[in-house]
Specification:
CATH superfamily of the largest domain: Response regulator
Radius of gyration: 25 Å
Helix content: 55-70%
Strand order of the largest sheet: 2-1-3-4-5
CATH topology of the largest domain: Rossmann fold
Number of domains: 2
Largest sheet: 5 strands, parallel
CATH class of the largest domain: Alpha Beta
Structural class: alpha/beta
Distance between the termini: 69 Å
Strand content: 5-15%
Number of helices: 10
Order of helices and strands: HHHHHEHEHEHEHEH
Amino acid sequence: MTVAELILKYVEALVWPSVVLIFLYRFRRGIGELIARTRSLATPAGSIEFTERAGELLDDAATDQEERVPTTARRGVLRRLERSAESLQDGKILWADDRPRNNIALVRLFESMGMQVDLALSTEEGLERLEVRSYHIVITDLERDGDEDAGNTLIKRMSERGIDVPVVIYSGSSRLRAQADRRAFATTTGPDRLIHYVIDLMERARFA
């Protein structure tokens, strides 16, 4: 090998790393975003783990609510949860219920999706929180604080104060459909349907 060939190989060995470094520096922002998106994608193992954990929480919520979630409905809501991860991220829920222990499983489920859930034990506490903080969704039970129409009362008081946040009434009360205020976005006794309504409202907020 001649001296010229040795020099050429030496130059090539120096040039290519320099080209790569320049490329990486110039397109660092795009590469960083690509890496972030790649990390956010669920691997098959991660997807299975998420589905199992979310399914357990949904089953716990159904037990707490004494509601049966059919297998097809269970499978459908878990699939939708996985597809809606980006829409739910950083969503803010105010949950008004004087028995928050009954909602622990769903609270944990929403928090696992990157949402923040604030609890209010009374209508007054809920209104105070709504006055000082913005929320995407309000979830309330129907009966609370000795008031059989506490959920409706909260909706009425919100309207009087000009607080425009969609409300979902989630309750096991047999009077739910007949007594719920028409201004409620939705009413339900089923945890799977509540999850669907939360996704509906978050997608509306994101893409409105």
